[in-house]
Write a structure and sequence with these properties.
- Helix content is 0%, strand content 57%.
- By secondary structure, it is mainly β.
- The strands form 3 sheets. Strands 5-6-7-8 form a 4-stranded antiparallel beta sheet, with no helix packed on it. A 3-stranded antiparallel beta sheet has the order 2-1-9, with no helix packed on it.
Length: 93
């Protein structure tokens, strides 16, 4: 089971993650932290357009702490709509 932890609080937990480039992509419903939309944009040459989120836990906010590929390119279709976390959030499997 993979778990994402920030400030000693588990913010995502699932045994259904997809690992791409050493990042665990969690199902959206496995994430318990509040995710606020961010204006940050990024386009990966092989995954496509990413959207970013600020992660909010117990009133603390981590800017651009998570991202997702809502409509990835075919090469990354298995991560569609899943959430990955910035390295400032600890992920263990």
């Amino acid at each position: 089971m993979a778990q994402a932890t920030w400030h000693d609080r588990t913010i995502a937990s699932s045994d259904d993650t997809v690992v791409v480039e050493r990042n665990h992509y969690f199902p959206r419903d496995a994430v318990t932290a509040e995710l606020e939309p961010s204006p940050t944009e990024y386009t990966c040459p092989w995954k496509g357009d990413a959207v970013y989120f600020h992660v909010v836990v117990d009133g603390e906010r981590l800017e651009d702490g998570a991202w997702s590929y809502p409509e990835p390119k075919d090469a990354a279709k298995e991560i569609a709509g899943r959430i990955a976390f910035d390295p400032r959030i600890s992920v263990s499997a």
